[in-house]
Design goal:
This protein has 367 residues and is α/β, with parallel strands linked by helices. The protein folds into two domains: 242 residues, Type I PLP-dependent aspartate aminotransferase-like (Major domain) (Aspartate Aminotransferase, domain 2); 119 residues, Aspartate Aminotransferase, domain 1, CATH 3.90.1150. It is built from 14 helices and twelve strands. It has a seven-stranded mixed β-sheet with strand order 1-7-6-5-4-2-3, sandwiched between helices. It has a five-stranded mixed β-sheet with strand order 8-9-12-11-10. Helix 2 runs parallel beside helix 10 and helix 3 packs parallel to helix 4. The chain is globular and about 80 Å long. The protein starts with a helix and ends in a 6-residue tail after the last helix. Bound molecules: pyridoxal-5'-phosphate (PLP). The site of pyridoxal-5'-phosphate (PLP) has 14 residues, from helix 3 and helix 4.
Length: 367
């Protein structure tokens, strides 16, 4: 069912019979007369190509409205506007470094309080809830430790305390999980990743299922203006058409690699949730990460994820660069940790490349 929905997402059904959606570049729209509108006035507010993506994405997420933003961070920033000074948000302890950086800034600048909690520990989370707590912000598969959280009990907890549950679903995508159906209030993605899927669009998307939240976010989106361009909106829609195929393939490649790495002497720790194409590896101390990255032939040392190519990232100086060392320490983000976004290449090529790069990375010594 989702496969068909994805393959045929947002067919236009316009009078031309076009299969692919038109890209409306016009920023302004002629009014039939004073006080009248075609539904489109100015592109920041609404654009037909962006609307086509947003409407089809909202359906895919089982929500009522989506908002396409100019990056994943803009999606998170859009959501932050729902909160005011002294509001508290409980946040996944292990999460994307850019989100940590933004929350840190918002705390210092605007007084919104972000408390980092371990969502594996239900009791700890419950104990942190106060009268000021307004939301839970969860990465259901955390970045970079790949910790899988059972979110279900938190939907009930949130309901009991009237908290918003916000899910960063970038890793799982609507193909593997639709949190709004399960009880979440807001779902966001860095659409730069699996949604776009080809490392050529920077984008984000926020989806909700409640009319009031939808209206608030619509107003903020228009007011702030970090909306997605028509061309990028088109590219996201095109990327979605193959989401199921890409996820299945990268997930199967990642599962095989995770199993293989368990047996490798060079690998100290395999961090994998069993789902998606995302896994992290901690190399043993007698393997040099810089040498490993320089020796790759097929996998690419680059900072992103969710595309067709296998990318390898070094969180210590890349995704989590602005996290203080003491915080990195607590999360096991050290100089032996690499994060892999497994692509859709032939699995044997990926495995061979990693094994040869590990051989080059060996610096000797004792384990
Ligand atoms: C889980 C997660 N959320 C949000 C973001 C931010 O997205 P963007 O880079 O599109 O701004 C990222 C980026 O890597 C991410 O991994």
């Amino acid at each position: 069912m989702k496969d068909t929905e994805l393959a045929q997402i947002a067919l236009t059904h316009d009078h031309t019979g076009a299969i692919a959606n038109p890209i409306y570049l016009s920023t302004a729209y002629q009014h039939p007369s004073l006080g009248q509108s075609t539904g489109y006035d100015y592109t920041r507010t609404k654009n037909p190509t962006r609307s086509a993506f947003e409407e089809s994405f909202a359906k895919l997420e089982r929500g009522i409205a989506s908002f396409a933003t100019s990056s994943g961070m803009a999606a998170i920033q859009l959501i932050c506007n729902l909160f005011k000074p002294n509001d508290e948000i409980l946040v996944s302890f292990d999460l994307y470094g850019g989100t940590f950086r933004l929350f840190d800034y918002y705390e210092q600048q605007y007084g919104i309080q972000f408390k980092y909690v371990d969502f594996l520990n239900y009791e700890e989370v419950t104990n942190q809830i106060t009268a000021n707590t307004k939301a839970l912000f969860i990465e259901p598969i955390s970045n970079p430790q790949m910790i899988a959280i059972d979110v279900e009990p938190y939907y009930q907890l949130a309901q009991k305390h009237q908290l918003l549950t916000i899910i960063d679903n970038t890793f799982l995508t609507p193909y593997l999980s639709t949190p709004l159906e399960e009880g979440a209030d807001i779902v966001l993605h860095s659409a730069t990743k699996y949604i776009g899927g080809h490392n050529d669009v920077l984008a984000g998307v926020v989806t909700v299922k409640d009319d009031k939240l939808a209206q608030q976010l619509f107003d903020f989106h228009n007011m702030i203006g970090a909306t997605l361009s028509p061309l990028d909106s088109y590219l996201l829609q095109r990327g979605l058409k193959t989401l199921h195929l890409r996820i299945e393939r990268s997930q199967s490649n990642a599962q095989q690699l995770a199993a293989k790495c368990q047996d490798l002497e060079a690998i100290d720790q395999v961090l994998y949730s069993g789902r998606t194409g995302m896994l992290s590896l901690r190399l043993n101390k007698n393997y040099n990460v810089a040498k490993f990255l320089e020796s790759l032939d097929i996998c690419i040392f680059a900072e992103s994820l969710g595309g067709t190519e296998t990318l390898i990232t070094f969180p210590y100086t890349q995704t989590h660069v602005d996290m203080p060392d003491s915080e990195k320490d607590k999360r096991g983000i050290d100089e032996q940790l690499i994060r892999l976004s497994i692509g859709i290449e032939d699995y044997t090529d990926i495995e061979r490349d990693i094994i040869q790069a590990l051989k080059h990375a060996y610096v000797g010594g004792i384990l």
